[in-house]
């Protein structure tokens, strides 16, 4: 079998997992690739005790790995967008194929990177960038190639899902669960990327491009985190037959494309509502096949390495193939990408859950419902919790039907301005995913 030399840049959680799984499963991997895949070089500032590096050339300068003539494939597992971007562009300019696990790099700089790779005739694959070990990119890019994809919705940040699950099941505090996710190696170097939805947004933007054939447009996506989710919302959602999940949603509608990450109430009977802990899942709705669901470990060393190595195998199989015959980086061949409008959040349409504190006196409820009706917001369900003996305010929960966000915001502002409503209204978007 022809040898394929791999240089791994970055030997942290994902790089070390890739190194070890490649060594452990070499027989199966090589039989699948039809090539003898060998890690010849590692670029890392320091050794990782989890890896036996004997016989491997270790360079402390990661960029130097991209200069080694005999290296065919550069695996970038450094993370971030600084040195990682330099490594990827250097590898491309030196005619090397690239496999990366870096979602931020692809979401923010993918258009530039793919153009450089196209010009140089090399492949850039990035299965591990979305949903860790779940082969969702291959599924959307290749498995669903017959379809017009209408929408997709995913739990694509394991840390956030772990936090929401522990809050719901064990009543644990937000910060306590986040600290555990950090210890387990799931969280990003900066965990605000997890809890504020930035990491999920990176992944969503990639999935949307693959699904709809549009360029990567991270700057136009809407992102809202989970740090404002209160324990009582989790409980009220359950009472109404819903679960709160931090979803990334990409939807093609007549006016353009919706790209949004936010906490979302989803019916508890949906399979995706029962995806718990650090697991990820992506639900894809397409015209020919209907709905398909992809589920598995969204983070962690070896699950993510599984995706990195699948890409290495693909590249090994395709490296001698003319570039026109290779699977395109964004599913559609360059020149066939549409520039669909990404809609501002005010233009999206969805349903809403509202929780507010209203003074327990005649006429308040009718004022609230009148405001909703004046703005074209119709009510699906309304619950008023009994007022505690020592309190003047009642908790009111309202579920609305689908409405444009702009109209809902106007109604919300009017309700908040009522003297009988205390504080701000807590709202969470609701999706049926039907
Ligand atoms: N911080 C990410 C997560 C890691 O929790 O899902 C995998 O991308």
Your description of this structure?
This protein is α/β, with parallel strands linked by helices and 434 residues long. 35% of the residues lie in helices and 27% in strands. It contains 14 helices and 17 strands. The model has no long low-confidence stretch (mean pLDDT 95). Bound molecules: L-homoserine (HSE). L-homoserine binds at residues 132, 157-159, 186-188, 194, 199, 298-299.
Features:
Alpha-Beta Plaits, 17 strands, binds L-homoserine, alpha/beta, 3 domains, six-stranded parallel sheet, 434 residues, eleven-stranded mixed sheet, Dihydrodipicolinate Reductase, domain 2
Structural class: alpha/beta
In helices, the fraction of residues equals 25-40%
Taking the sheet with the most strands, its summary is:
11 strands, mixed
The CATH top-level class label of the largest domain:
Alpha Beta
What would CATH call the homologous superfamily of the largest domain? NAD(P)-binding Rossmann-like Domain
| Tally of separate domains | 3
CATH architecture of the largest domain: 3-Layer(aba) Sandwich
Average pLDDT confidence is 95
Distance between the termini: 49 Å
Please, how many helices?
A: 14
> The CATH topology of the largest domain, please?
Rossmann fold
């Amino acid at each position: 079998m022809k040898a394929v030399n791999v240089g791994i840049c970055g030997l942290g959680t994902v790089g070390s997992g890739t190194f070890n799984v490649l060594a452990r499963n070499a027989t199966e991997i090589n039989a699948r690739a039809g090539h003898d895949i060998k890690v010849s070089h590692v670029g890392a500032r320091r050794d990782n005790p989890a890896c036996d590096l004997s016989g491997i050339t270790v360079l402390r300068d990661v960029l130097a790995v991209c200069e080694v003539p005999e290296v065919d494939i550069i695996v970038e597992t450094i993370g971030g967008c600084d040195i990682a971007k330099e490594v990827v562009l250097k590898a491309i300019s030196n005619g090397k194929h690239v496999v990366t696990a870096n979602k931020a790099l692809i979401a923010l700089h993918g258009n530039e990177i793919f153009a450089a790779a196209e010009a140089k005739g090399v492949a850039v694959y990035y299965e591990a960038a979305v949903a860790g070990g779940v082969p969702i990119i291959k599924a959307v890019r290749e498995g669903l190639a017959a379809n017009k994809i209408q929408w997709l919705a995913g739990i694509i940040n394991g840390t956030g899902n772990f936090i929401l699950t522990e809050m719901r099941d064990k009543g644990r505090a937000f910060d306590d669960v986040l600290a555990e996710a950090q210890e387990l190696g799931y969280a990003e170097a900066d965990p605000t990327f997890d809890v504020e939805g930035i990491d999920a947004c990176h992944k969503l933007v990639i999935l949307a491009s693959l699904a709809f054939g549009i360029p990567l447009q991270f700057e136009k996506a809407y992102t809202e985190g989970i740090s404002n989710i209160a324990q009582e919302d989790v409980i009220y959602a359950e009472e109404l037959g819903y679960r709160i999940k931090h979803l990334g949603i990409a939807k093609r509608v007549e006016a353009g494309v919706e790209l949004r990450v936010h906490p979302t109430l989803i019916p508890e009977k949906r399979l995706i509502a029962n995806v718990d802990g650090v697991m990820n899942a992506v639900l894809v709705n397409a015209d020919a096949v209907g709905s398909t669901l992809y589920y598995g470990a969204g983070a962690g060393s070896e699950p993510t390495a599984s995706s990195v190595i699948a890409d290495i195998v693909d590249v090994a199989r395709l490296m001698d193939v003319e570039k026109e015959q290779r699977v395109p980086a964004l599913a559609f061949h360059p020149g066939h990408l549409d520039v669909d409008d990404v809609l501002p959040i005010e233009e999206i349409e969805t349903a809403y859950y509202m929780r507010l504190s209203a003074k327990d006196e005649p006429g308040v409820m009718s004022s609230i419902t009148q405001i909703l009706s004046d703005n074209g917001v119709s009510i699906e369900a309304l619950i008023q919790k009994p007022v505690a003996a020592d309190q003047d305010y009642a908790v009111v929960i309202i579920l609305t039907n689908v409405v444009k966000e702009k109209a809902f915001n106007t109604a919300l502002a009017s309700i908040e301005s009522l003297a009988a409503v205390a504080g701000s209204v807590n709202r969470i978007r609701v999706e049926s995913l039907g």
